[in-house]
Amino acid sequence: WLPFKVFNITASFNNLKKNAKIEKIVFHPADSEKTIIKTGNKLYIFDLARLEIENVGENDLTVWAVQNPNIYYLRQTESTSTAIFSFNLVLKNETLIYEFSETVGFDPDEIGNIVFSPDKRKITFTDASGKIFVYFLEDEFEELSKKKGEIIEFDFYSDNSSKIKNILWYKDSSHLLTEYADKNGQSRIEFTEIDSRLPINKYELSQGEKMNYNLQLNRLYFLQENNLYFLDLNSF
Question: Model's pTM, two decimal places?
Answer without folding.
Answer: 0.74
